[in-house]
Amino acid sequence: MSIFSTKKTSASPEYPWWFILVISAPVLLGSAAFVFVGNLDTDVTVGSQRVIITGMVRSIRFDEITEITLIDKTMREIGVGAKIRGLGGIGQKLSGYFRVRRGGDEMMLLYVQSKTAPTIRIQRKDDIDVFINFRDGRKTENLYNKLMERLQNDR
Known about the structure:
Layout: H1 17-38, E1 44-46, E2 50-53, E3 58-61, E4 65-71, H2 75-78, E5 83-87, E6 93-99, E7 107-113, E8 119-124, E9 129-132, H3 137-154
Parallel strand pairs: 7-9
Antiparallel strand pairs: 1-2, 2-3, 4-8, 5-6, 6-7, 8-9
């Protein structure tokens, strides 16, 4: 074969446009859905025996809570380190396990909007702290009041 030949010598196949669309559309739609759902506020239910947090579906028994604090700061002001497992970095939502900014191996579990105050801190016996807040600060304060009322009735 001559070096001036016009025949294709490439071994790479050419795919029709519809095949590329069929393959890429689910990936793009799935990614968009993940970002949308991931940025929704966490749903928290205060039950008779436990607090149920949707998102990464977690429940905290009231008998394992040592203290609940309402902090008038955003999670960014409190300090967040590297993400270990969860959702973070897309929008303001941080959900999952993160390192404490101070360094070391200390971790925290977050269900927060990073730029919204106030933030609830739930300290637990023999487990890492949980931080929760919502886009609407009043909703966070209402949850705090429910948690405190339920905790005081339990003791």
